[in-house]
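Appendix B, record 7
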Amino acid sequence: MCNVMKDKSEFDMRHGGPFDRGSADSYYGRGITPHYYVGDTYSTDRVEEDKMNRHEIEAYMAGYEWNEKFGDKKDWG
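Structure tokens (predicted):
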């Protein structure tokens, strides 16, 4: 995994972006599956890992790791 940074401001924080999707996957207890949405989540085209560039994959991984370290998890109870 990449190096987790406390300052996440270097990443695009938009809803549906790679960082957002990584943090959401962690929050909901999903595995690591790099992806993002062109616009808003679920209402626009999904871009899969094989179509992502290195920076987009790094942003996804940073979001996932950030939530693992500083975020929380969905309480399914």
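Remarks on this record: Helices lie at 18-27, 54-70. The chain has one domain: 12-70.
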